[in-house]
């Protein structure tokens, strides 16, 4: 029952950068993998990135092919916060972005939305000229 709150969404021009934050409540944040997802109008929610917990023996950060090389997921467990650094933004990146906590320390597949139990409220990212 981790509570997550996203922030940092904004209107950005194509080619610009934006950093999203995901602040978590409680002291157990570091035990859970954190995923970033997005949902554009008329589209299904899709996985963007997942950052494994430091407690995972095979921890890693994964990315969807559509954002690989442009987005960087990270976490600061001392601050109970995860981040999504978004660079070289494109109009097709426009969506509501969500962070979510998995039920494990290791990242599930980005397609496995059901394995993320706690979700933030979302923050709007709009890429437009």
Q: Write down the overall geometry.
A: globular
Could you tell me the strand content as a percent range? 35-45%
Helix and strand content put the structural class at mainly beta
What does the average pLDDT come to? 94
- State the end-to-end CA separation: 39 Å
Q: Specify the biggest β-sheet.
A: 7 strands, mixed
Number of helices: 0
Helix share bin? under 10%
- Detail the poorly predicted runs: none
**Measured on Cα atoms, how large is the radius of gyration?**
14 Å
Number of strands: 11
Query: What is the multimeric organization of the chains shown?
Result: single chain
| Elements, N to C (H/E) | EEEEEEEEEEE
Description:
By secondary structure, the protein is an all-beta fold. 0% of the residues lie in helices and 44% in strands. The protein contains no helices and eleven strands. The chain has strands spanning 4-7, 11-12, 18-24, 34-39, 46-51, 61-63, 71-76, 81-86, 95-102, 116-119, 123-127. Strands 2, 4, 5, 6, 9, 10 and 11 form a seven-stranded mixed beta sheet that branches. It is globular, with a radius of gyration of 14 Å.
What is the fold's blueprint, element by element?
Layout: E1 4-7, E2 11-12, E3 18-24, E4 34-39, E5 46-51, E6 61-63, E7 71-76, E8 81-86, E9 95-102, E10 116-119, E11 123-127
Parallel strand pairs: 2-11
Antiparallel strand pairs: 1-3, 3-8, 4-5, 4-9, 5-6, 7-8, 9-10, 9-11
């Amino acid at each position: 029952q981790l509570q997550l709150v996203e922030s940092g969404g904004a209107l950005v021009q194509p080619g610009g950068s934006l950093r999203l934050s995901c602040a978590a409540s409680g002291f157990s944040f570091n035990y859970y993998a954190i995923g970033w997802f997005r949902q554009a109008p008329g589209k299904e929610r899709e996985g963007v990135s997942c950052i494994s917990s430091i407690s995972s023996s095979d921890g890693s950060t994964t990315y969807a092919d559509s954002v690989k090389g442009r987005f960087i997921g990270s976490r600061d467990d001392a601050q109970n916060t995860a981040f999504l650094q978004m660079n070289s933004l494109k109009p097709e990146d426009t969506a509501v972005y969500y962070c979510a906590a998995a039920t494990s320390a290791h990242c599930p597949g980005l397609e496995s939305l059901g394995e993320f139990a706690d979700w933030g409220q979302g923050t709007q990212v709009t890429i437009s000229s």
